[in-house]
């Protein structure tokens, strides 16, 4: 397989070299059917990749690449519950969290569907109790504020989803504390009343230093305000390590489990989504799961050339490995997706930031790009300059809804949504079209500049064009669509990882820093640098805490 893949990579490199200098605008001019040929839909969701430098032949090669890499077989292995996470010897079954069919599905002797259904039902009962005021704080006050304590996958997904679904948020206020920097917890709880605050301690392992430290401080805050006996009313937990949760002292009926076949960054669909469920209600959370499942079915069954996650991944591979672009920007023209880029940073970079293949060999091609972004239109007034005229092309992924929220109650906002769409389309169009020196000069002359001034200024107003972007368009960001979007990105990451033949489901790269942090804590507390530290670390330690 390795040699065959390399042949396809070579053919792709030749294709790019043969078309160097070609403009994407020429491709549009030559083919009136280009948009139809290079876009695909799933329900109301549309993926447009036509503004990338692909021809039908390029796309054919990329599809060959996916087939040669065994994407279809690897996809089947994932859905079948095989232990595709080989370094941790685990199945990868976050898809089972949103497949709520009743048919038993036994993996490693466990009926995962029954387990998922049971936890979801328990979460819904707890959620209804909190939202209705039946479950109160220790003094009988209803819960008005829920503070989730977690980090990484136990934070980013729920934060992102809570903001995304804010139009549906009718439960208690939701807050998220992740950073071990005590300021995060302090600032969050400062305006809150302990008597009406519920903490959810969310940690897959229940050993994560930051989460355990914040949980202990939060416990102290409750105990100091309400007494030790109040802890049971003011804490719930989500974890796979139920023994460790019990040791922390959280009442068993407030502990919601999940399983080692759910990766942290794929866990928002599990009990880790509890703060989201409490915010938007069990029915809206169920729609979120339905959306994820619908996209799973699309990914599992649609032919590769019409398969949205596959196409998104192939464009990613084209840009990363053939064009050599090191980053990609995710720019949602949707304020409710403000935290999507941060969420995708973990999903993508923790999954595919790998340097060895499944066989332990050094990878032959660059893997995960840097993922970054901010909502549009704000990015336009900040970093878009570099995307348009910087020296390294940055592929952009635009996300845009046909309809916004709040427009029914406030019809005047409809115009602002039109402005949002206009800006989104304008940016991708400008990136693709660019502006030549002749066009820039002509514009300056037409604006009344003299020839010398036009010649001097025109080069600064040149845009190379052919700067790649894809656009994902959908009707409205509701729970179902959010589920589809997140599953789309999850499967994109899967397909890219499958082509690179890496394990997208472990994260050993985060371990070394964690080990060093634990050995450094005593040094920070004592102000004494151990001899094993580099001169830099010892010098910094001395500067910060030395006596
Ligand atoms: O350190 C990285 C990581 O293990 C992530 O993969 C995970 O999402 C995060 O830490 C939090 O882990 P946990 O849920 O076990 O506290």
TrEMBL record:
SUPFAM superfamilies: SIS domain. Pathway: Carbohydrate degradation; glycolysis; D-glyceraldehyde 3-phosphate and glycerone phosphate from D-glucose: step 2/4; Carbohydrate biosynthesis; gluconeogenesis. One of its GO terms (molecular function) is glucose-6-phosphate isomerase activity. The keyword Hydrolase does not apply. Transmembrane segments: none annotated. It catalyses: alpha-D-glucose 6-phosphate = beta-D-fructose 6-phosphate. Keywords: Cytoplasm, Gluconeogenesis, Glycolysis, Isomerase. Its EC number is 5.3.1.9. InterPro entries: G6P_Isomerase (IPR001672), G6P_Isomerase_C (IPR023096), Phosphoglucose_isomerase_CS (IPR018189), SIS_dom_sf (IPR046348), SIS_PGI_1 (IPR035476), SIS_PGI_2 (IPR035482). It holds the Pfam family PGI. Coiled coil: none annotated. It is found in: Cytoplasm. Gene3D superfamilies: 1.10.1390.10, Glucose-6-phosphate isomerase like protein, domain 1. The active site is at residues 350, 381, 514. Belongs to the GPI family. Catalyzes the reversible isomerization of glucose-6-phosphate to fructose-6-phosphate. This is Glucose-6-phosphate isomerase. It comes from Ancylobacter amanitiformis. The lineage of its organism: Bacteria, Pseudomonadati, Pseudomonadota, Alphaproteobacteria, Hyphomicrobiales.
């Amino acid at each position: 397989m390795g040699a065959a893949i390399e042949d396809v990579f070579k053919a792709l490199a030749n294709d790019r070299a043969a078309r160097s200098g070609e403009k994407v605008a020429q491709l549009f001019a030559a083919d009136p059917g280009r948009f139809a040929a290079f876009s695909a839909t799933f329900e109301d969701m549309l993926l447009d990749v036509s503004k990338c430098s692909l021809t039908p032949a390029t796309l054919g090669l990329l599809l060959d690449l996916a087939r040669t890499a065994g994407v279809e077989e690897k996809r089947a292995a994932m859905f079948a519950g095989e232990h595709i996470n080989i370094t941790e010897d685990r199945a990868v079954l976050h898809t089972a969290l949103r497949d709520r069919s009743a048919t038993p599905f036994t993996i490693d002797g466990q009926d995962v569907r029954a387990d998922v259904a049971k936890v979801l039902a328990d979460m819904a009962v707890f959620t209804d109790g909190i939202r209705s005021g039946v479950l109160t704080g220790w003094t009988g006050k209803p819960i008005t504020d829920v503070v989730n304590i977690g980090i990484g996958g136990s934070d980013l997904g729920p934060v992102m989803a809570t903001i995304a679904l804010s139009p549906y948020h009718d439960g208690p206020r939701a807050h998220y504390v992740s950073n071990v920097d005590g300021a995060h917890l302090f600032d969050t709880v400062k305006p809150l009343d302990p008597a009406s605050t519920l903490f959810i301690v969310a940690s897959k392992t229940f050993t994560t230093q930051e989460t355990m430290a914040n949980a202990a401080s939060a416990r102290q805050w409750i105990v100091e305000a309400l007494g030790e006996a109040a802890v049971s009313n003011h804490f719930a937990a989500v974890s796979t390590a139920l023994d460790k949760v019990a040791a922390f002292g959280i009442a068993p009926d407030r502990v919601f489990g999940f399983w080692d076949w759910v990766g942290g960054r794929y866990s928002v669909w599990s009990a880790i989504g509890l703060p989201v469920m409490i915010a938007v209600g069990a029915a809206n959370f169920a729609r979120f799961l339905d959306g994820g499942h619908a996209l799973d079915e699309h990914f599992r069954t649609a032919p590769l050339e019409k398969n949205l996650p596959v196409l998104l991944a192939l464009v990613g591979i084209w840009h990363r490995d053939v064009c050599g672009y090191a980053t990609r920007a995710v720019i949602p023209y949707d304020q409710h997706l403000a935290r999507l880029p941060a969420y995708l940073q973990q999903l993508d970079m923790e999954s595919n930031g790998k340097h060895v293949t499944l066989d332990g060999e050094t990878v032959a091609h660059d893997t995960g790009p840097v993922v970054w972004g901010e909502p549009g239109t704000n990015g336009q007034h900040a970093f878009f300059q570099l995307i348009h005229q910087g020296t390294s092309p940055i592929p952009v992924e635009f996300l845009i809804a046909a309809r916004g929220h709040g427009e029914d109650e406030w019809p005047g906002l409809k115009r602002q949504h039109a402005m949002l769409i206009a800006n989104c389309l304008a940016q991708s169009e400008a990136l693709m079209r660019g502006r030549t020196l002749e066009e820039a000069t002509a514009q300056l002359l037409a604006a009344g500049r003299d020839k010398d001034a036009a010649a001097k200024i025109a080069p600064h107003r040149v845009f190379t064009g052919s700067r790649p972007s894809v656009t994902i368009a959908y009707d409205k960001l509701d729970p179902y669509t959010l589920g589809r979007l997140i599953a789309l990105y999850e499967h994109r990451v899967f397909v890219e990882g499958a082509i690179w033949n890496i394990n997208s489901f472990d994260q050993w790269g985060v371990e070394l820093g964690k080990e060093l942090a634990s050995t450094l804590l005593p040094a920070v507390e004592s102000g004494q640098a151990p001899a094993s530290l580099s001169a830099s670390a010892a010098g910094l330690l001395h500067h910060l805490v030395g006596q």
